[in-house]
Amino acid sequence: MRRAVTAGVSLAVMSLALGGAAQAETAPFRIGALNPVTGAGSPYGPGMQKAIILAADEVNAAGGACGRKLEVSAEDTQTSPEAAVLAVKKLIEVNKVDAVMGTWSSGITLAVMPITTQAGLPLLNTSGAPAISTEDKADLVWRFQATNDRFGQAFAKIATERGFKRPATMAYNNASGIGNTEGFTKAWTAAGGEVVSSVVYEPKRPSYRSELQQILAANPDVIVMGSYLQDTTVILREWYQSGQSPDVKWIIPGWAANQQLIDALGPDVLANVIAVDSISNESAPSYAHFEAAYKKAMGAEAPANVYAAMTYDMVIAWGLAMQQACPDTTIAAVNGSIRAIDAADGAPVYTFAEGKAAIEAGRKVNYEGASSRLSFDQYGDVTPDFSLSEIDGGAFVRKGVVSF
After folding, report:
1. Which domain holds residue 349?
2. Domain-embedded: residue 380
3. Residues 6+ apart with CB under 8 A from 192
4. Which tens digits make up the pLDDT trace of 264-280?
5. Cα pseudo-dihedral 244, 245, 246, 251, rounded to 10
6. 69-124 per-position pLDDT tens digit
7. Burial class of residue 191 (count of CB atoms within 10 Å of its CB; 0-12, 13-18, 19+)
8. What is the torsional sign of CA 256, 258, 260, 265?
C-alpha cells in the first residue's frame, strides 16, 4: 500500500538577491513518512503517519520554518524490510524527499539506513537496536525511542523491585529482540545476578513448545521477552495450555502487549504478564497540545500509541532545527542544528510557534517534546520514561513508572 499526502503546501521557487547571492530557500522541504501502516506494526502505523501530517500542518500554519513549508509524502513499510527498502527508494528517487521519518522496528530501520545515509538524508526513527547508534557513522540518524539497552535496563530494574531471583530470557531472532534481552542480561549480571537460561527463537513458527520446554526446565521465576505480538501470542498460549510453571511471571515489551493480545488470549492467560513500554512526556504542555490534535484527528486516545507522539516530535524538532539554522536550510545545516533545539540553558518551549518566536528573538530554546524531554546524547538517542502495566479489569493498566 503506497500513497502520497501533501500537508498544507504552497509551492515556491528559490529566490536570488539582486546582488546575485542566494537568499533563504523558499521551496517546500519534503518529508518522507515511512511508517508501518500494515503488517505487525499496523496498530501504530496509521497514527504515526497522521501525527507527521498533523505536525507538518502545525509548522505550515505558523508560516513554515525559515519561510519554508513542509510537504509530506507517505509510504507503508508493511513492517517488512524488503517492502521498506522499495518504499524508501521511491521516496528518495521519485518523491525527492529531504528527510525520512517514522521507521518502526529495528529490522526496518537497519534495512533502510544504508540507503538514506548513502543519499545524505537524515533518518528519524522509533527503533531500539543498539546497532542503530553504532552504525550511524555520518551522524544522520536520530532515535526518538529508547534503545533496547535502555529497555533491558528497565526490565532489570522492574525484576529487581519485584524480587525475582531466577530470570530466563526468550528473544525473537532479530536486532531488536536480541537487543532487549541482551540489555536485560547486561544490567542484571552487572548487579550480580544470574540468568538461568536463554533462548533465541526464529520468527513465524506455528509453535514454540520446544523453546518453552528448554526455558521452563531451568525453573525460572520470571521470563523476560524480546518479542512481537504474533510470537508472544503463540508462546503465552502454549505456556498456559501446558499447565507447566503456572506461577512464572513474564516481562514483555509494550509493543507486544496491546488490545489485540488481550483479544487473542483473554485476561486469564495474561494475569502473570508485566508489560513495559516507553511513555510520552505526559506532564508537559507539549503533550497536552499534541494529545488534543491527535484525538480530534484519530478519534482515539494518544497514550494508546506512544509512537505517534514520537513521530509528531520528529517534525516539530526538525522544523525548529530549520528555524535555528536559518537562513541556511540545507539538509546538512538543519541536521547540524538539531541538538541546538534542546539547549540545557534555553528557554523552555512546547510548540513550534513558541520555539520559532523565541529563535527569531535571538534566544536559545529547549524544546520539551510530547514524546520525551528530547535530550539527545552523543549518538542522537533519547531516554524516555517507562511504564509497567498489568491486566486489571480485562485491560492493561499502568501500575508504575520507571525513570533513569
Report:
1. 29-146+281-367
2. no
3. none
4. 999 999 999 999 999 99
5. -120
6. 999 999 999 999 999 999 999 999 999 999 999 999 999 999 999 999 999 999 99
7. exposed
8. positive
